[in-house]
Design goal:
Belongs to the PrpD family. It holds the Pfam family MmgE_PrpD_C. Residues 290-477 form the MmgE/PrpD C-terminal domain. The chain is an alpha+beta fold. The chain has helices at 22-31, 38-57, 62-72, 96-108, 128-138, 142-162, 176-188, 192-204, 220-240, 256-260, 297-309, 328-334, 350-353, 357-367, 378-381, 384-390, 399-406, 448-459, 465-476, 483-487, and strands spanning 3-8, 83-84, 93-94, 116-117, 121-122, 267-272, 319-326, 393-397, 417-423, 428-433. It has two domains: 3-279, Orthogonal Bundle (2-methylcitrate dehydratase PrpD), CATH 1.10.4100.10; 294-433, 2-methylcitrate dehydratase PrpD (60s Ribosomal Protein L30, Chain: A, 2-Layer Sandwich). It is 44% helix and 9% strand. The strands form four sheets. Strands 8-7-9-10 form a four-stranded mixed beta sheet. A two-stranded antiparallel ribbon has the order 1-6. The chain starts with a strand and ends in a 21-residue tail after the last helix. The model has no long low-confidence stretch (mean pLDDT 96).
Length: 508
């Protein structure tokens, strides 16, 4: 049965024992030999497929190409056989921390993989690249890999449930460093002490401000989680060599809680599985049908519904105003409450438009859907009628939608809201949506066939059909894979695809 770990800041003279520290409890969960339930195995397979899908779609984009070139410029480290890089031939390997980096950027670039939102925001699939990279490097089989991934997801979800980072303008990847380190610890069968040190180091090196997701959002948005995964791999390496980390990292007088989060008088209740309790965290996460910020998923689905039911609302000449009544987060992070003029700028970057619900709703309403490339094209963003409609859309915080957003009851937790469209003739159109269609409680919940369809859609332009089938065969047999098959768990681009992508030169 899940129990809450009471977490608070401690003065140095309180001498908090290791056994009372959150990092130690995380390590204890990581070493628990409990087996992974079949439902969790199935969902892990879904998410491995999902990650590969979005990586394929982003494989020629500039940030992914830059990260891939950095990885290719580093040889395989001497302690293992290295790890594969998305797009490259299976035989072309690099050191695992650089594979975690390159593949992490590929997965994160389009903001198109899985999500979990609670006290904090997260993309738990960011755990997969570093854990897979280490598995390939050391020669782990599919069974060990599944166990490692189950831990990564569990710790990520548990931290996200309890500890808000964004409230203090800390980027959400501060929960990713510890979860990835714990998952790698499970994969390798490390002891509690070693994982404890790795978790502390991973957290210490991955706390950064949320400016990466504010204002004129840069390409670092995709690199930040990859950097956390890379740091987790390096933290485990250091801990395995007997090196120690800042302690207590969460609870210390000068630690994360006291100085980066709610302060020296703060406390949290972190829900953690007990010994022998299966790790089910992944089952509470959800993926994206659309390539956009998760809070936009339900709004895209509502917009495409209105596209069919209320076509007059697509023409800005007919519309006086559109107000999206929604949660605090949607209003202040991706809505007009952010007070970011870039969210209404037709020349803004893709990363910025991805975090603009007024833009996204306007395009989805006019187009009746969303496309991971076409919907962000400069020509699409700059279309005169779209700009006119876009600038009539605002958001407003609604207390009830905020309450539902933060609800711990999965049956009422909601990420959407209510739209009020006031037409120029005085008529008013209203509709609402609680969760995205692809959500487990949505109109069309994603199942294995949907993940495979998404993979095929995104992979077909850059992978041969035989390669698509080869990868799917491996992914669907994940817990049974041999060491060599785990090393082949990657996607190889068609001849010429990577050659046509940018190949920037840098220091390495």
């Amino acid at each position: 049965m899940t129990v809450n770990h009471h977490l608070r800041a401690h003065r140095s003279d309180e001498n908090l024992a290791r056994e009372g520290q959150l990092a130690w409890r995380i390590a204890e969960i990581a070493v628990d030999p409990v087996e992974v339930e079949q439902a969790v195995v199935d969902m892990i397979i879904n998410r491995v497929i999902d990650n590969a899908a979005v990586a394929a779609a982003s494989i020629t984009r500039a940030p992914v190409s830059a990260a891939r070139q950095q990885a290719l410029d580093h040889p395989v480290s001497v302690g293992g056989k290295g790890a594969s890089i998305f797009g490259c031939n299976v035989e072309r390997r690099t050191s695992p921390e650089w594979a975690a980096w390159a593949n992490g950027v590929a997965v994160r670039e389009l903001d198109y993989h899985d999500t979990f939102l609670a006290a904090e925001y997260s993309h738990p699939g960011d755990n997969i690249p570093p854990i897979v990279a280490v598995a390939q490097h050391v020669g782990a089989d599919g069974h060990a890999l599944v166990r490692g991934l189950a831990t990564g997801y569990e710790i990520q979800v548990d931290l996200v449930r309890a500890i808000s980072l964004h409230k203090h303008k800390i980027d959400h990847v501060a929960h990713l460093g510890p979860s990835a380190a714990a998952g790698i610890g499970t994969l390798l069968g490390l002891d509690t002490e070693t994982i404890y040190q790795a978790v502390g180091q991973a957290l210490h090196t991955t706390t950064a401000t949320r400016q990466s997701r504010k204002g004129e959002i840069s390409t670092w948005k995709a690199h930040a989680p990859a950097f956390a995964g890379k740091m987790a791999v390096e933290a485990v390496d250091r801990a395995m060599r007997g090196e120690t980390s800042p302690s207590p990292i969460y609870e210390g007088e000068d630690g994360v809680i006291a100085w980066m989060l709610d302060g020296p008088d703060a406390s949290y209740e972190v829900p953690l599985p007990t010994a022998g309790e299966p790790k089910r965290g992944i089952l509470d996460t959800y993926t994206k049908e659309h390539s956009a910020e998760y809070q936009a998923q339900a709004w895209i689905d509502l917009a495409r519904k209105l596209h069919s039911e209320s076509p007059a609302a697509m023409d800005p000449a007919n519309v006086e105003s559109i107000v999206l009544h929604t949660s605090h987060h949607t209003h202040y992070v991706i809505g007009s409450g952010a007070n970011d003029p870039q969210k209404y700028d037709p020349t803004a970057s893709r990363e910025t438009l991805d975090h603009s619900i007024p833009y996204i709703f306007a395009v989805a309403l006019q187009d009746g859907g969303w496309h991971h490339v076409d919907s962000y094209a400069p020509s699409r963003a700059g279309r005169e009628d779209t700009v006119a409609l876009w600038h009539k859309i605002t958001t407003a915080e609604d207390a009830e939608w905020t309450r539902r957003y933060h609800s711990e009851d999965p049956n009422e937790k909601a990420f959407g809201g209510r739209v009020v469209i006031t037409m120029t003739d005085g008529t008013v159109l209203e509709d609402e949506i609680a969760v995205a269609d692809a959500h487990p409680l949505g109109a069309r919940p994603f199942v294995r066939e949907d993940y495979i369809r998404k993979f095929r859609l995104l992979a077909e332009p850059v992978l041969e059909e035989a390669e698509i089938e080869r990868f799917l065969d491996l992914a669907e047999r994940l817990p049974e894979l041999t060491v060599e098959e785990v090393r082949e768990l990657t996607i190889v681009a068609k001849p010429g695809v990577l050659a046509a992508a940018p190949a920037p030169k840098g220091l390495f």
